[in-house]
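Notes from the pairing session

We agreed to fold both candidates in a single pass and log them together. This is the raw record for the first candidate, unedited. Please don't reformat it; downstream parsing expects exactly this layout.

Candidate A
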Amino acid sequence: MQGEIIVYHAHGKMSHQELNKLCQRLYGQDTSSHGGQYRYHRRGLLEDIPHRKLIRGVLLVWPEDAKLVVDFLRSYGAEVFMREVQLTEEDVSMLRKKPG
């Protein structure tokens, strides 16, 4: 079964603050109020897209989801490479799990 591998690199092109914002909006973030009284979760793009994070900056996704992820990363100025790959059984199993 075919999938897409997305490799992205943003370090050095953006400030630490900008990189944090990209990661929060890509993966989601748990936050709380200053006193810790209220806790909530801000959803990230990948919480609604089946994916497998192999290592930092390397993702496997279904071909139909690849453009959305690539466009998102490029909107933050990340350098992005994408290739079609043959998925392993483990990859397919993880991508078939319901995101979120």
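Candidate B (folded immediately after A)
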Amino acid sequence: MYRTIRPVLFIILSAIIYFSLLILFYHFEFEVPGSGVRNFVDVIWWSVATIATVGYGDIVPVTTEGRTIGYVFLFLSVTVYAYVIGKVSTSIKSHYNNKKLGFLGTNFTNHTVIIGWDDFGKKVVDQLIKANRKVAIVTEERNHVDQIYHLYSSKAVFVLFANCTNYKYFNKLNIAECNIVFLNNGTDTDNLVHLLNLKRHFPGLEYIVNVDNPDLKNNFYREGVKYVISGDELASKLMASYIFEPDVAFFNEEIITFADSDDKYDVKQFKVLDRNPFLNREYSKVFFDLKREYRAILVGISREMNGKYMLKKNPADGTIILAGDYLLVIANRVVAEKLSKLFGVKEGVN
């Protein structure tokens, strides 16, 4: 409340001093030969011209007292300009700083929210950026903000500098419009606590968690996490595959990352819209058409059942592709772009 009253008092005090000086100037200079002051309006005009440093010279103080007041106005003009310039400069700097730290919020939609920043989070963002996905990141370290914006464009990445437990700031992430929330902050216990708090503040969101201890995966699933990943578990499976099936392991490693060149392949996911040319066609026939015409391999279909999408790998003959399904296709970058135009939708979950 004091901060609100202080500017008002400053304005009132300044107005009192200003008009007091004008009255004194009028008293000393009124109808004095050479001064040009004939009424109080002339005094106001002179004060404005003086403070604005215009100095037309049509009204000039001739008395010692009037010139003394003139000196005061000249000093005030310098002070006012310094104050105004300082305020504007501070306001611009504050606005830029607040924007950089994420305090002004973002209008991202259908984006990924990542809570916590580290090397693993960077690798995830690298893949998301290659897939043209937008990302909003929460970090508790001020220096991370500069690092992240040095790596990525602000058009693709939004950073919020805030305590990861201060959920009132999370609306600035436009979290209600995000696609999924990736919990990447601290230990498994920390992530579980964050999950429970986030579900209370922002119900209805979907979550993905990377756990250090694979034994805790079921705990997260019971709390409603959509995907629980264990990095160590994946790494150990891939390592074992390299030992006895090296070509399979190499291919697996390639298809789980984004294909950023024409000679690399990965698994793409496209939603079936009403204008999809393969709508209401049999899965097996679509499989052969995609292979023959586009050199793409259809490997599965995801369909909503009881409010949850279920993945069908190599579904049975007679399966019909319906609107709202997701087609999982192995393709390189060029083929993926062609399929995106053909299907009328970008790859990924929409």
